[in-house]
Amino acid sequence: MKRASTIFASLAIGALVAAIPATAQDAPKRGGSIVVSLNAEPTHLDNQLQTEKNIDWASKPMNAFLVRFNKDAVLEGSIAESWEVINPQEIRMTIRENVKFHNGRVMTAADAKASIDRVLNDPQAASVKNNVKSIALVEVNDDRTFTMHLSVPDSTVLGGLTAVAMVPIEVVEGQGDLKTNPVGAGPFMFKEWERGSHHTLVRFDEYFEEGMPLLDELTFVYQPEYGAEIASLRSGDVDIILWLNARDVVAWRDDSPRGIKLDDGGRSVMALHYFAFNLEREPWKSNEKLRLAIKYAIDRDEAAAIALQGTGPAKVSGIAKESPYYDPNWEYEHDLEKAKQLMIEAGYPDGLTVDHLVPKTPLEVPLAQAFQQQLARIGIKLELRVLEVPTFIDVWVRQRDFSTTTVGRESWNDPANIVEFFMHSEAPGNRWGFSNPDVDAWLEEARATFDFERRKELYSMVEQYRIDHAAPFIVATNGTRYAGLRDRIEGWISQRDIRYDFRNVWVND
Amino acid sequence: MIKYIIVRLALVVPTVFLLSVIVFATIHLVPGDPITVMFGIEGYYPEEVERIKKFYNLDKPIYWQYFVWLKQMATLDFGNSIVRGEPILPLITTRFPRTIMLTLGSMLVAIAFSVPLAMMAAKRHNTVIDVFISGISLTFISMPTFLLAVLMIMVFGVYLDILPTTTHRFASGSTWDVIKGLIMPCLSAGLVTSAGITRMLRTELVDNLHKDYVLFARTKGASDNRALVFHNLRNAVIATATLVGLELGYLMSGVIIIEIVFSYPGMGQLLLDGVTRRDYPIIQITVLIFALTFVVINFITDLLYSVLDPRIRYE
Amino acid sequence: MGKSERIDAGTGEQVLEVIDLETRFFTLTGVINAVRGVTFSLGKNEILGIVGESGSGKSITCLSAMRLVPTPGRITGGKVLIDGQDIMLESEEDLCLNVRGKKISMVFQDPLTALNPTYTIGWQMKEALDLHSGRATKMDDVRSDLIDALKQMNMPDSEDLLTKFPHQLSGGMRQRVVIAIALLLKPAILIADEPTTALDVTVQAAVLDLIVRLRDDPGMSVIIVSHDLNLIVERCDRTVVMYGGLILESASSEKIVTRPRSPYTRALIHCIPPLTEDTAAFNAIPGDAVDLAQPPTGCPFHPRCANRGSGCDDSVPDLAEIEPGHLVRCFYPESVA
Q1: Which residues constitute the domain of residue C275?
Q2: Cβ–Cβ below 8 Å for C114 and B235
Q3: What is the side-by-side strand order in the sheet with A404-410?
Q4: Number of domains comprising chain C
């Protein structure tokens, strides 16, 4: 069977490695237990049914996936030993023979089919399904081989499979779901879940990757108050907090508190925070000059400096410079004079007042305030409507009652997840009423082709269109997640896709 | 007296019913529903969202949903959490005792601090000691519980590092772990509460100092301290009991903040989580339980009042 | 005032002697001299009256005699001898156990406030016993004693009373209970501070009679404190008139009424509305009562005094014995009519 090396190339992302080297030449040691802080309790631990990142972080160590992105964001086999793209609508995959579920049963191709089918059919799995929805049928060939038949040619399916956890189907059928008593094939096994407080995982001795994991025990505690998370890290009650505030990152970069170190910042290569227009409403619908005026008035460097205090870069696209999909032609200069001229051409020489919807998050609020200052320079008065996140979601997503908004997204390694997700006329992330037949055609072709160069070209065209027409949004920056670690934690890898990996983490006491 | 108790108990039913209507209406009027909120962060999938809403009857009119819920409650079936997909009852039964423990523990701290302090201040009223105690009380009264809690964490949790800043050992540990986990939360809530009680009790005690029955007890041969405890305090407690009852109610709501700051796995966190996720069944039941507890506390305070004051008991 | 001004009743044994007593209140706004060197004695089986307006220091004098001055007050000088022993020298524990309630008792103006509203009559009576026996007795053991004590106060239905709370009794009954408690340990001295002021007129006489009878049975010495001169002179053997923390006159009650020598006493007598005449005709003493925080120099009464002369505002006159058993503090005493 031939390894489909073309797929590697097409999905590879030349991201920077972000591993913290072990301080001494100490060899990794087995044993020990660590505590990781989550800022909210996961609503359940069924990775397939995840609706928020928290569930993924809390349950991923218990799960194994057919394929995964390695630390360089290159797709590699995990449970899958090899795969072959027979044709653009048919992918055959062979799984390893020594993969066991936590209940002791050896995993077969039938489990892979059942796991994928569940994601496709259970409405609660909508978030995970979105990335593999083109799979029409999974056919089991033998114990270790199965074939995925796609409804349309789709190069993003393999990337999508990195999020489909493999589950023993008899357990799902027996207990209904895996929300409270998860069973997977991952490096850690479920031990207990004390609601509202913590859940604890223990090493799965029969995990299929030799010598992994290193830790005996992994406990996730829930601390909704950020100050409490910091206090716990400082006192050593917690070993890792996943997301530090920009303020602490700046303060700790030069002088971190005793016993604590920073990782080098897990910069998601597919993340963006942006200023968006509701294109179903005037003046945005027909007045392109006005949108362009805003585009040139927004100073991305200044906005990033204010909102992220220098911990994240200014950006022109959700596709970062580190990504092979990045195109330098997208770049443009902030130009206040041009913006003012465009305001006159747009028919608003005296400016106007604009409604601006903002979710109450530590990043979006200061970013929106930065936009407010900048747009005031061209006479646009941004009236901020800051709402609690659940209310924001309802107003923004369901009612679509907004004129403009500041919001953000972090995603996995394929451009489809941010470009197509937001800009295809039928996409779930298209909340702007943006619809352009050319863009739709380019996006569909990008999904259908397995040729990296062509995909890059197509996504570049879509992004160029978005930037030239300032529709549906203007990207300002991306968030950067820095984790805080106790000194004793070794083997930590800052992931490019914000999916944390505890297989190699060990304790250096 | 018995008639009074019966009337009070009978009033609980319409109170709770009315409250359930208000809660139900309010949470459904607030924008956002559990399913939209659940998927909204990562992507809105209208078809799936509608399918799940239908499954949970969230597409039905509010009054219809209310009556279904009422019917369910009538059979003491608390139902399932929408976003968690698990029964609510076990969530409540593990957390409610913890919140009660925290509330009563805080009140215990409050009383343990306020009674001796108030007595000390009253005995030495208008002296430096009295002014000092008043000053401390005033500081704690004007201090937000939140700030005190954070200070505690910084001092006892981080710098001295003698108490845990997380509660995972508390939730499934030994009795000693439970006590250690309770110290800071109870101190933070308790000290703030104690300030109010100290001030009121001190005022009552000072007022009583010159009451004839205190002096009379002294002329009978009672020592200063005995007169203070058996005669003065005994009467000062009657007026203060009302405040303690009120404070206990405030504490119940105040512990929501305490639970969040200390990551304490109680009802307050459950409620907050329910509100942010718009998990209707959880909000309804936690708010109702909070309200019922409030009603019960008030009721007990009233009863206690008549136990403490024979003038009320016999009228 | 440093000089000891001893008054002998002339009837023999003295059960209580107060000598040069000074009591001051140290408030945040200043020092108040409530009692400014008071000396008097109480003979065995004697009934002594102390009369004065509010603020005259009469009540504080009585409390000082039991060493029970409320904070921020303090006894700053003088002696109090009970049975010849100076209680200023005794320990607080000793006073509680052996003096207060046992040798000397006190009853108060308002019987409603003198009894603790939260305890039963029985509990409050038993407490008096327990405080001096140093242990908690059983109610069953002392019930008959308590009932006897109540019966002696002419209380009907005594057995039932023990389980009652003060608010369930009438004012007169409460005052009887208070007196019963005060007398429970058969003290030699009883101080009655305005014992009838808060009572209905109909029961006032009965309660006073009850107190006066104590002289004969069980044979006690009594101090009655009141603002009502009429009440005092009618019941007491001897009367002490106080004003501004000082004794202004002291004599047998008869002499006080018939031959008052202090202008203040005289003024007090003129205040008493004669029952036969129109009450509107009685003369109030002109001027305001003395302010103890800022007392006038010299004789405290001089600003209101009709006999005021030179020197009255300079120094305090001595308490002088102008005839045997009759003491007056005045530079210009009234002449004998």
Answers
A1: 1-103+216-337
A2: no
A3: A380-387, A352-359, A404-410, A271-277, A473-477
A4: 1
Q: If you classify domain A271-477 with CATH, what class do you get?
A: alpha beta
What's the complex ipTM?
0.87
What chains are in contact with C, requiring at least 3 Cβ pairs below 8 Å?
Answer: B
A380: phi then psi, degrees, rounded to nearest 5: -95, 125
CATH number at residue C12: 3.40.50.300
- The structure tokens listed for C168 are 């369930």
Q: Which fold has domain A67-173?
A: Dipeptide-binding Protein; domain 1 (3.90.76)
pLDDT in 10s for each residue of chain A, 509 residues:
333 333 333 333 333 333 444 444 578 889 999 999 998 899 999 999 988 888 999 999 999 999 988 776 778 999 999 999 999 899 999 999 999 999 999 999 999 999 999 999 988 888 889 889 999 999 999 999 999 999 999 988 998 999 999 999 898 888 878 999 999 999 999 999 998 889 999 999 999 998 889 999 999 999 988 888 999 999 999 999 988 888 888 888 888 888 899 887 666 666 788 999 999 998 999 999 999 999 999 999 999 888 888 777 888 888 888 788 889 999 999 999 999 999 999 999 999 999 999 998 888 899 999 999 999 999 999 999 999 888 898 888 888 899 999 998 877 678 888 899 899 998 888 989 999 999 999 999 999 988 889 999 999 999 999 999 998 999 998 777 788 999 999 988 876 667 888 999 999 88
If one counts every other C-beta atom within 10 angstroms of the C-beta of residue B218, the result is 24
* Level-2 CATH architecture, domain A4-61+186-267+481-507: 3-Layer(aba) Sandwich (3.40)
Hey, are the CB atoms on A394 and B32 less than 8 Å from each other?
yes
Residue C182 Cα, gap to closest chain B Cα (Å):
7
What is the pTM (predicted TM-score) of this model? 0.81
CA distance B140 to chain C (A): 26
Neighbouring-strand partners of residue C242: C247
Which sequence spans correspond to the domains of chain A? 4-61+186-267+481-507, 67-173, 271-477
Q: What structural domains does chain B harbor? A: 2-74 (no CATH), 92-308 (1.10.3720.10)
Q: What sign results for the dihedral spanned by CA atoms B167, B169, B175, B177?
A: negative
Distances (CA, A) of B169 to A21, A194, B97, B176: 31, 10, 17, 10
Task: Report yes or no: A425 at the B interface, CB cutoff 8 Å.
Answer: no
The span from the CA of C57 to the CA of C72, in Å, is 15
